């Protein structure tokens, strides 16, 4: 694969974190920050009802691919072990395969690095194998129904189900597994799909994860009544077959894991609203325009790209990241009196 010179040369003078800084990122609550989510575009070819207003004419922000790569290198020097490329829809981004390839080359025997990507799957069928060949480890596909009519109602894009299903199957063939399929549950739209997704997990051999609807949508339509809580999801799954709890893979895992009495299929439930998991959060996010966010629901952002664009060195960027992590919130406050939604929606923050 040909790599543009601007990418290949961007890390030539890469320097590790200065000696007076800790080698790893630890916030003031004692949590190790090992998971970086990088939004490489806030463009998207879907207009999902729980995310977008459906209106056209939005303004988009993206950094050069080489700049994302330099930022990633600084984070890796600070102990990041997991990188997830997100959007918007990252498969829309020109230069994606080069970015994946260059990040994959940063793996060393003594430095674990899990490289994953989240996509809506619409363009995945033709890109699954090239992504695997470039060095991607795993993929998560957003699919909010297994009924074609319902998914089109949610995405507001005709034919979306068939594109997404083809993308999931292509990802499995390419070895980007275990493939995870994320479904945001939104009352009045798709809560009747829970059992259908249980069957889908068993039939297709994928991990299905239900996500509680969070107040991150553009049109500010979220209400507590629109959330389908974890308890209700487990009850509906139990109507299909007896449900068995599984232990967490890691302490910071966001999903509660379940299977069925026969051990076939895996369901995860991510319940940030009804059963918050902030106590073991290991994440930090980079928006597509280069701002750091310490929580999805932060009321402030930290302009790392601005520092870099003004000529900041890798050491200065590392110090900035440490100072930002030190301000990481203990938890979010969804549902509490005085809760404020973030100023930007999920598509602009990055999934």
TrEMBL record:
EC number: 4.1.99.22
Gene coding for it: moaA
Catalytic activity: GTP + AH2 + S-adenosyl-L-methionine = (8S)-3',8-cyclo-7,8-dihydroguanosine 5'-triphosphate + 5'-deoxyadenosine + L-methionine + A + H(+)
Keywords carried by this UniProt record: 4Fe-4S, GTP-binding, Iron, Iron-sulfur, Lyase, Metal-binding, Molybdenum cofactor biosynthesis, Nucleotide-binding, S-adenosyl-L-methionine
GO biological process, one term: Mo-molybdopterin cofactor biosynthetic process
Task performed by this protein: Catalyzes the cyclization of GTP to (8S)-3',8-cyclo-7,8-dihydroguanosine 5'-triphosphate.
Alphabetized GO MF terms: 4 iron, 4 sulfur cluster binding; cyclic pyranopterin monophosphate synthase activity; GTP 3',8'-cyclase activity; GTP binding; metal ion binding; S-adenosyl-L-methionine binding
Note on how the cofactor is bound: Binds 2 [4Fe-4S] clusters. Binds 1 [4Fe-4S] cluster coordinated with 3 cysteines and an exchangeable S-adenosyl-L-methionine and 1 [4Fe-4S] cluster coordinated with 3 cysteines and the GTP-derived substrate.
Sites where the protein binds GTP: 37, 84, 118, 180, 283-285
Family: Belongs to the radical SAM superfamily. MoaA family.
Residues engaged in binding [4Fe-4S] cluster 2: 278, 281, 295
Protein name (database record): GTP 3',8-cyclase
PROSITE patterns in alphabetical order: RADICAL_SAM
Binding-site residues for S-adenosyl-L-methionine, renumbered to this chain: 50, 88, 142, 214
């Amino acid at each position: 694969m040909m790599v543009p010179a601007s990418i290949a040369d961007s890390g030539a003078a890469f320097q590790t974190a200065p000696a007076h800084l800790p080698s790893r990122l630890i916030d003031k609550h004692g949590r190790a920050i090992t998971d970086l989510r990088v939004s490489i575009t806030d463009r998207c070819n879907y207009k999902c009802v729980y995310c977008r207003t459906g209106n056209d004419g939005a303004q988009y922000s993206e950094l050069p691919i080489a700049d994302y790569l330099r930022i990633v290198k600084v984070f890796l020097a600070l102990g990041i072990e997991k990188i997830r490329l997100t959007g918007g829809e990252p498969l829309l981004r020109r230069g994606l395969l080069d970015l994946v390839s260059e990040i994959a080359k940063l793996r060393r025997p003594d430095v674990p690095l899990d490289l994953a990507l989240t996509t809506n799957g619409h363009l995945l069928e033709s890109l699954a194998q090239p992504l695997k060949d470039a060095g991607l480890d795993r993929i998560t596909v957003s699919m909010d129904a297994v009924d074609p009519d319902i998914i089109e109602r949610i995405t507001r894009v005709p034919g979306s189900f068939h594109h997404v299903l083809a993308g999931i199957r292509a990802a499995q063939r390419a070895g980007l597994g275990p493939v995870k399929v994320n479904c945001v549950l939104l009352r009045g739209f798709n809560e009747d799909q829970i059992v259908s997704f249980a069957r889908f997990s068993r039939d297709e051999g994928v991990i299905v994860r239900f996500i509680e609807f969070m107040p991150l949508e553009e049109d500010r339509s979220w209400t507590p009544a629109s959330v389908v809580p974890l308890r209700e999801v487990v009850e509906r799954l139990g109507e299909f077959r007896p449900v068995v709890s599984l232990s967490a893979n890691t302490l910071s895992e966001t999903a509660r894991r379940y299977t069925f009495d026969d051990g076939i299929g895996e369901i995860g439930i991510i319940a940030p609203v009804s059963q918050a998991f902030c106590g073991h959060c290991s994440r930090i996010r980079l928006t597509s325009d280069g701002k750091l966010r310490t929580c999805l629901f932060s009321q402030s952002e930290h302009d790392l790209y601005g520092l870099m664009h003004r000529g900041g060195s890798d050491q200065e960027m590392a110090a900035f990241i440490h100072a930002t992590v030190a301000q990481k919130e203990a938890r979010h406050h969804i549902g509490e009196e005085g809760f404020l939604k973030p100023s930007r929606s999920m598509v602009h923050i990055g999934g």
